[in-house]
Automatic annotation (TrEMBL):
Keyword Transcription in record: yes
Subcellular location field: Nucleus
UniProt xrefs under CDD domains: bZIP_CREB1
Organism: Dicentrarchus labrax (European seabass)
GO molecular function: DNA-binding transcription factor activity, RNA polymerase II-specific; RNA polymerase II cis-regulatory region sequence-specific DNA binding
Matching InterPro entries: bZIP (IPR004827), bZIP_sf (IPR046347), Leuzip_CREB (IPR001630)
Example of a GO cellular component annotation carried by this entry: transcription regulator complex
SMART domains to which the protein is assigned, alphabetical: BRLZ
Keyword hit for Chloroplast: no
BZIP domain span: 91-142
Keyword list, A-Z: Coiled coil, DNA-binding, Nucleus, Transcription, Transcription regulation
Gene3D superfamilies assigned to the protein according to its UniProt record, in alphabetical order: 1.20.5.170
Name the UniProt record assigns to this protein: cAMP responsive element modulator
GN (gene name): LOC127369487
Recorded coiled-coil stretches: 109-143
Length: 149
DNA sequence: AGGGGGCTCCGTCATAACTC
DNA sequence: GAGTTATGACGGAGCCCCCT
């Protein structure tokens, strides 16, 4: 995407996804572009300057997916030398967290879809406007040409 | 029929950003 | 600073289409 100026698109459904600047935050393992929270949390941004940072994304998928690392503190190995209660509590806490995150992910995807649809609509509107303006310009040029002749 | 590729959706993880 | 929320990345599952 090449944009010299951030294109602000007024979109009633923009919600968390503003239409600001999109910057390439980092290069990932798959080589996909990460739409970072560069401008602000509530803005997608498009700028010319790309940065490449060494973050957790530089790790392998396996390194990132150590299952035990995601367990609440105290869960790993807790069963070996403590009663069952803290373990159960921790597992419950984890379940709750996963459930909340599941919901959050759903909502986030819904908003993103809505945002994309909104942008597509905006593109259609602008294309129509552009066509109309071109027509208008052509007509005015015609009128002018006839006048000078 | 079945297998491969592309697409979409979902759950999970990691982490930045936010809140208290 | 700890806890919470939002979101990109990733991998798996299911579906569809096309080719053999």
């Amino acid at each position: 995407m090449v944009m010299s100026m951030p294109l602000i698109v007024n979109c009633t459904h923009s919600l968390a996804f503003g239409c600001g600047n999109i910057s390439v935050r980092e290069k990932t393992l798959k080589g996909t572009v990460c739409l970072g929270k560069a401008g602000s949390r509530y803005g997608m941004a498009v700028t010319g300057d790309e940065t490449e940072t060494g973050t957790a994304s530089d790790l392998t998928a396996c390194q990132l997916r150590n299952p035990s690392s995601s367990l609440p503190q105290g869960v790993v190995g807790a069963s070996t030398h403590s009663s069952q209660k803290p373990l159960e509590e921790a597992l419950q806490k984890r379940e709750l967290r996963l459930m909340k995150n599941r919901e959050a992910a759903r909502e986030c995807r819904r908003k993103k879809k809505e945002y994309v649809k909104c942008l597509e609509n905006r593109v259609a509107v602008l294309e129509n406007q552009n066509k109309t303006l071109i027509e208008e310009l052509r007509a005015l040029k015609d009128i002018y040409r006839h006048k000078v002749e």
